[in-house]
Amino acid sequence: MPIVTKNQQLDHALISEILQITKWLEEHMEVKFVHFIFHIDQTSIPRFNEENKYLQYRRKCKEMFSQINSLPQISIMDMKGSFKSIWCEFLYQCNFTISNANTVFCWDHLKSGILPISTSTFNLSQQLKNTILTSKEMYASDLRDNTLVCEVYDDEAQRKRRIIKIKKDIFQSSPTGLIQLKHAFSVESIDEYQKVVEHSHINGDWKNKPEFSSVHEMKTLIKKAKPKENDDLKSDHN
Fold first, then answer.
1. Beta carbons of 174 and 212 less than 8 angstroms apart
2. In terms of domains, do 179 and 158 share one?
3. Alpha carbons 165 and 222: distance in angstroms, whole number
4. pLDDT 10s digits, 75-103
5. What pTM was computed for the model?
6. Do residues 178 and 29 lie in contact, with contact meaning Cβ atoms separated by under 8 Å?
7. Cβ-count burial of 19 within 10 angstroms (0-12 exposed, 13-18 middle, 19+ buried)?
8. What stretch of H or E contains 91?
């Protein structure tokens, strides 16, 4: 599912549009991937004079980043142009990022008197944190070394080939397995991770069969498994 924007400003209208789409995607897990296409020559963010309006804007941005981060689908971020401050934070919300080699990312939050919004900023490497502290400008080719950008291309033909390849790989993967692994990677402890991974066999995709289980089939399997768990509890109690 492609999401394309030419909007130069990360304003309330664009944020609301992205939130509306991500909420729809949460209810349609049969969609395998979401492809954000941000090809924008020059970006900007709104400026505020009133504290309550600025704080409201930060809350909406935080909600948007959180929603993108927690999507059950594989998310692809496709960026080309010049991106400033909060726009740069889109880089680490998605599972796969592709960008033109000459795309510029300017981490100039502090020049606008603001701090990063996404909580994922906390998990960045010290090198990238220093980039934000010094309002440094970086090319996509530099960020590939820091693993923020997975693929860098020089021309449109190269971009299309790489996008087609990653989408093909996603379509060849177990749809329920992708959802389960994304969830496993988002939990906060090794015990929670193990719990998700150990129950992943329920989809039966490990069997030698012509097709993987669909998301709808997985929901049915989960419902069937629940009474068995309850029966086990009863027998243990007796």
1. yes
2. no
3. 32
4. 999 999 999 999 999 998 888 999 998 99
5. 0.76
6. no
7. middle
8. none
